[in-house]
Amino acid sequence: NAGVMQNPRHLVRRRGQEARLRCSPMKGHSHVYWYRQLPEEGLKFMVYLQKENIIDESGMPKERFSAEFPKEGPSILRIQQVVRGDSAAYFCASSPLGTGVPNEQFFGPGTRLTVL
Amino acid sequence: AQSVTQLDSHVSVSEGTPVLLRCNYSSSYSPSLFWYVQHPNKGLQLLLKYTSAATLVKGINGFEAEFKKSETSFHLTKPSAHMSDAAEYFCVVSERASGGSYIPTFGRGTSLIVHP
Predict the structure, then answer these.
(1) Cβ <8 Å between A58 and B97
(2) Rounded to an integer, what distance in angstroms lies between the CA atom of residue B47 and that of residue B36?
């Protein structure tokens, strides 16, 4: 059973370009979480999705950031018109259960975004 | 509102000596608490979790943590450090948000350094 997969592992973009980060959850998991990790800091929650639904996006910046988890295919975190401050490691996690249970999340290896 | 404080940004020990990584939390309700480990350029791996059962929780790789409600602490310990334990450790508190989902809050992390 493959773990959570993220691609690309490293992504370099110039200011103003778009960044698309992909996350394939573990088999059988229908809940996906996205986090951002800045240097020397812990992970900051961004968004929690189930298939075709955004459940909680309280950690998402109001502009330029969006996320989706379609019925088929991976979850996508999209950052439009990237700025240098978007440079960070972005982690995806999945779980088999969602609301109502404080359950373990399984993390992917992360995508390291560098904005030049 | 929930928060978590990891009291040490770096902890340095010699191989074979005990490890203590400190974590204090703040939570409005009965929290669930987790410790994750992150090795360089890898995703996070769950070490152990507390979800209102036994206050002394045993995890993988010889780690354990004790939930002390009176002290609002959840310190991570290991009797004897191994070189492979060198990594970043995150304490996490999770409680139900207003929307009904459990959203975790991560500490800033403690870097464990193990000397031969």
Answers:
(1) yes
(2) 5
As a whole number of Å, the end-to-end CA separation of chain A is 37
Nearest CA in chain B to A99: B101
**Which H or E run contains A70?**
none
Chain B contact for A10 (CB, 8 A cutoff): no
Residue type, B29: Y
**CB pair distance less than 8 Å for A109 and B43:** yes
End-to-end CA distance of chain B: 41
In angstroms, the Cα distances linking B19 to A4, A19, B49, B62, B75 are 30, 40, 18, 11, 10
State the virtual CA torsion across A37, A47, A91, B112 in degrees, nearest 10: 50
Name residue, tokens 């996906």. Answer: A32
In single-letter form, the type of residue at position A115 comes to: V
Q: What is the mean pLDDT of each run of 10 residues along chain A (116 residues)?
A: 88 97 92 89 88 90 95 95 95 76 79 96
Q: What is the distance between the alpha carbons of residues B44 and B102, in angstroms, rounded to a whole number? A: 18
Q: Which of A66, A62, A91 is nearest to A78 (CA)?
A: A66
**Would you call A12 helix, strand, or coil by DSSP?**
strand
What's the pLDDT tens digit per position in B27-38? Answer: 877 788 999 999
